């Protein structure tokens, strides 16, 4: 019992220190999903690269402790975090100068499981955010853990004011419930809802061009309208994404002229217009 006040004070200090550092980014964007498996990390990673292509100074914070995949998506599997002379954690510089911070880059091997209970994981992500040498930049993109648990709450509470949320979903029968949870989470945490990205929206046949809704049909527009937001992009399924991952290259750079690459750049331009207006 005697350690509780000390633990609380330490957490408060970490939170305040992290918030001061993150305020050095002009725009902060949390990429959220109500459940896993909808491509949230892919959207966050490719959005970061597309922003960097537009000349923005970008940092990507992979807060998905249990399922960190941004190092793989950015072609940084073998990278590691190091400390500077003052003991601060240095981000790993990725393609196009994107700064990546991820728990996975601190593990002995990428496949080492993180076996932490919620409170411990929340404290770890808080301490990590406080001890990183973030410096300053234009955009901080946060790949949030799926759902609305302890870690997601910790990160949302950590963010300075004027932080936005981008919700990633997929078109299936559960989408409405999932989007509702994500929207309610964002608003309850005081985040400004930017819009919805419908990932895996359709598959276009490479031979005839016909579009097929493999994941089901549920209008992203109707969901967005119901929750007073907008669909910013519909991203199709494509084998080119898996080919890029298999070749250990970021998709956006491996398939520069591909359909998904064009859609992601269009999404990026819309986000820039919305935030920098």
Can you walk me through this structure?
The structure is a single chain. It contains ten helices and twelve strands. It has helices spanning 4-22, 40-53, 70-73, 118-131, 150-158, 175-188, 220-226, 239-246, 251-254, 259-276, and strands at residues 25-32, 58-62, 82-83, 89-90, 92-93, 99-102, 137-143, 163-169, 192-198, 203-204, 211-212, 231-234. Helix 2 (40-53) packs across helix 10 and helix 4 (118-131) packs parallel to helix 5 (150-158). The longest helix has 19 residues, at 4-22.
Topology readout:
Elements: H1 4-22, E1 25-32, H2 40-53, E2 58-62, H3 70-73, E3 82-83, E4 89-90, E5 92-93, E6 99-102, H4 118-131, E7 137-143, H5 150-158, E8 163-169, H6 175-188, E9 192-198, E10 203-204, E11 211-212, H7 220-226, E12 231-234, H8 239-246, H9 251-254, H10 259-276
Parallel strand pairs: 1-7, 1-8, 2-6, 2-7, 8-9, 9-12
Antiparallel strand pairs: 3-4, 5-6, 10-11
Compact summary:
This protein is 40% helix and 19% strand. It is of the alpha/beta class and 277 residues long.
Q: SSE order in H/E notation?
A: HEHEHEEEEHEHEHEEEHEHHH
User: Whole-Å distance between the termini?
Assistant: 50 Å
Oligomeric state: single chain
Q: How many distinct folded domains?
A: 1
Backbone structural class: alpha/beta
Shape: globular
CATH topology: Rossmann fold
The percent of residues in helical segments reads 40-55%
Give the rounded overall mean pLDDT: 89
Weakly predicted, low-confidence segments: none
